[in-house]
Amino acid sequence: MTVFTEPISSSVSLFPYKGKRFGSWNLFTNSAGNFFVLEENNLNLLKNKNFLKERQNELLEKGFAYQIKGDLYDNSFKYKKKRRRVVQPKLEYLIVVPTLRCNLSCSYCQVSRANENASGFDWSEKDCELFLKYIRENGAQNIKIEIQGGEPTLRLDLVKFIIDGVSALCSNPTFVICTNLNEVSREFLQILENKRVSISTSIDGPLDLHDRQRTQGRFKAKRFLKNFLLLHQEIGLARISALPTITNPQEIIKIINFYIELGLTEISLRQVNFHGFARKSHRDESQDIKNWNKSYLDALDYIAKHNSLNQNKLIETNLALHLRRIFHLDAIGNVDFRSPNPSGLDYLVIDFDGKIYPSDEARMLARIGSIDFTIGSLSSGLDFETIAQFNAMQDNQKYSACNECAYQPFCGIDVIDDVSRYGSVDYPKLETHFCQTHMSLFDYIFLKIKERDFEALMNFSGHLTGRFEINPVFSGAYLD
Ligand code: SF4
Fold this sequence. Notes:
480 residues
């Protein structure tokens, strides 16, 4: 990839831009997130004064040039560039772990869960008190609380305490209970009568697959499915989300088909990650980037085909996130896929022992004794010195490979993943798992745009807007 900064002609100047060559065509982007594809095998074309003179109106229109400092084009560029990097200062997303105990022992468990009957792994009364104090002082009115574990339904009293306590302090809170659905009690169903509460569960695929990876007993797998169908009936699919953990990429299509069969409208295709127990039990699978990328992109084609032929559409959330990062100014992204990615602001994780982490992955690393990314605790508050040191690394503009990359304005940064896999934040970025998986998806998206792939573009539109139709946003992508 190449970075260009020169002014170009007497009448207009170019904003700094980056180019990426794809054989016979090029992609150009700039830090405002403006882009176009050009069917020319010449990355230096924008340096050609005659070409620029001829195409200056299009370059102004595409947000690549301005006439004078402070004109509409210049202001628009600066505004978009700034908006892309704004992070909310209030705590909007909080993961809490009121108990680490669990009634399953999945092969890839990421959190070194504690046994169901173990003691010392639940929030104490003091932790509960401090938690509400923390929310009172820091929580946004529209805070979203993800109640994780362990298995949080083992402590429904704490789940209820969190929901009632936060609802009394914030005007518009929402809650997600992450549960393995091993048990669904009457008390749990009563909690779910509150429409602000939804659930997230893990479905790894058809019963044999789910059983192999999670329940390790066909009886438990069947009970899970029965409970899933019960909740489907009681609260509706709109309040249920499900995630598979994929240990064998060859099984992706089978998993997708099962999600469609269950009537689910979203799926998040995730490779088994490199945390917790998975580090040992799925070491090779979690590191195999090439195989994963191929299977994942084939799966996106499969979903596009499904969506073009059927009324029951399926959204793949990772693709949706990347598309939003490209096409929406405010889509700052997830905590493991945004830049800058400051911790201690809008997103936190509070563990069973009151310790605070910047992300769930950071919590997992601490649990296995790999590296301590603690940034505070409920009792002592946030450690701003540690946070400042951590945040200094959490910006892709700090890394030379990213500064030369055409995808930088859309991409993110996740030094926790780099440290987890390579033991360092300085590992060459282009060789990281993070870079290679995200770059592969960006390449896929821009290739489909360049090819004007009708089926894929309809699918992209559906992922961005919910309407699977030809979207004019894609027709502006070319400098023909
Ligand atoms: S991580 Fe990779 S894809 Fe993302 S901006 Fe950096 S070099 Fe580009």
